[in-house]
Amino acid sequence: MVFPWQSRNNAINPGTTSRLLVAKAFLIGTFAFGTRCCDATATDIALDAKATLTHRIDSLNLLVYTFLLTLTVLTIWLFKHHRVSWLHETGLAVIYGLIVGAAIRYSGSSTPLVHLEVEPESNSTFNQTLPPDTLWLKFPGKLTPNGSDAVEDKTYAYTFRSQVYDVVENEIDLKATFDPEIFFNIILPPIIFHAGYSLKKKYFFRNLGAILTFAILGTTLSAFLIGALMYGFVKLMPTYLSSSFTFLDTLYFGALISPTDPLTILAIFHDLNVDVNLYALVFGESVLNDAVAIVLSGAIQNYGEHYSSTGEFETYAFFRALSDFFGIFMLSLLIGALMGCFTALLTKFTRVRDFPLLESALFVLMSYSTFLIAEASELTGVVAVLFCGICQAHYTFNNLSENSRTRTKEIFELLNFLAENFIFSYIGVSMFTFPKHHFDAVFIITGFICAAIGRAVNIYPLSWLLNLNRKPKISSNFQHMLFFAGLRGAMSFALAIRNTLSEARQTMLTATSLIVIFTVVIQGGAANFFLNWLQIPVGVDEEIEQLNNHQVRSSETYLQDCGDIDTNPGSSRRNEKAVLARLWGSFDTKYMKPLLTHSRPTLLETLPVCCNPVARLLTTTEQLTQDGDLRRTDSDSDICIDDSDLSRNRSGSGGGGSGDPRRNSINRIDNHLRSYHL
């Protein structure tokens, strides 16, 4: 065969020699490049396949929890349809979670994880007392088919997740668990905000002294008592367990197991119209003790990490931790209140209410940013978002358009429902899939006993102290119900799962999870029985009807009802409200509500005359142009509720007629302002 570049006498043309060499070099280079490209492409294909598998497992994981929530919703409907009250939705979510977790655990998943052991060099420069944040792995890859060359080295970054306890792990087992920070940054904020946004303020403030006593003093006392008892019992346990626990560990356990989450009890209270004062005590304590528990647990951690050098009791470290507790709590409260007031000012002095969708978006974003600001400032977002919700309901809600009022109420009610049930479903699933559970029967039983003792010390001695100067007194059957309502829930679990590095923390997580499951399913399911056994009055229709009446009178009526200027003879309201609530009610009506909402009286009427220029700037046209009594659906209507008898008494006395001196005063102010502008 004769090639084109050869002559017929087989002599090679010198001109074609260079072309021959170039062609050979091109063919060799192309082959080598193609080989490398094929190897690189194979690596990329394998990585793409792994990413696709990870995506499928993530989707399956989310599908599992979506299925759990769907099943819970349908079962709740079935229970409500047949009037079944012995099992609450949270108990259902836990039970379904346990079933699905067991199925995941024992279904024999065939997707094992690939582990590669890596050891640091002896001359490494980083601090080897703690694991690195990221690990850069230089991976040589797969050798070429002929074994002569290796694929180009690549560096992969791996982030720190946790300590390894079980080498035999399946990917679906790990994907069925979540980063604990998801609970704190995404799931808890809407739950806590909804608690503040939907707070029944009239009866909350009426029982404010008792609620603060149970929530702050009682929770703190319970935490320290549980911690001390657990430490004493742990030292009597086998060495393998007692050696892993310090006093700070048991104290942290006391702080995380003290907050209550009586969702089941409150749902039954609402359905049966239980006495509203008992409802307020249970709900108010559960709202505030979550905030107290998270600040207290943070103070205990600060004591061990920053202040104490030995881990034992040190006076200086104790007072530093104590100052942290009060300082962080108050600063977080202040941030929440300021953000709520700032949102109220935005909605008052802008026309964003003309665009309800933007108004609702602003409301949600400002509320969530409160949590993030507090966390970024090394404070407690739970406390901040709780008091932001209270301020939003008290002030901002009055400035919102009707669409935004309905939308924000429904949005946070829905988010709260989904988040609560997701957490309880996850508690059930994680009992089988979370790799860091450490079961110790002695510790778990001791935890149950100490938690009950701590709850008893929270309720009975403090109730006795409160009854010395309280009217009406907290009766013995109410005290027993308060003790029984000490269910543990989302906050306890979130605090326990946040740090599971040590064996002590893993044991605490397991005990906490079982306590939550037992109290929600068993104790919550027995609520109806205890209501009947303790003879708690139910069907209190008169008070509940008042709670559901959202027609708010003008500020003058607010002063009479909430400031305890009693116009109804024989009424006992004057002594029912806490002194602090009465003082705040007067200040709030005269200055805060006129500043942050469109309510009357305006600042022109309540501030001194010398402040009129400033008061005019802070008073809107809507406030000045209101005719008579302004009636509006108010989230804060639980403080000031219409009473038909009082309304008739006032209407008979000409309170709303043309001769009302208050209206004449307002008209004079309006005339003055018109002349001022001219």
List the helices and strands and how they pair.
Blueprint: H1 14-81, H2 89-106, E1 134-139, E2 154-159, H3 171-175, H4 180-197, H5 201-206, H6 208-234, H7 239-242, H8 247-257, H9 263-272, H10 276-307, H11 315-349, H12 356-376, H13 381-399, H14 402-433, H15 441-467, H16 476-484, H17 490-497, H18 503-525, H19 527-533, H20 541-547, H21 555-562, H22 579-596, H23 603-606, H24 612-617, H25 621-624, H26 644-652, H27 661-677
Helix pairs in contact: 1-2, 1-14, 2-14, 2-18, 4-12, 4-13, 4-14, 4-17, 6-8, 6-10, 6-15, 8-10, 8-18, 10-11, 11-12, 11-13, 12-13, 12-14, 15-16, 15-18, 17-18, 21-22
Commentary on this structure:
- Its main location: membrane.
- It is found in: Cell membrane; Recycling endosome membrane.
- The protein has a two-stranded antiparallel ribbon.
- The relative contact order is 0.10.
- It is globular.
- The N and C termini lie far apart (111 Å).
- It is an all-alpha fold.
- α6 runs antiparallel to α8 and α15 crosses α18.
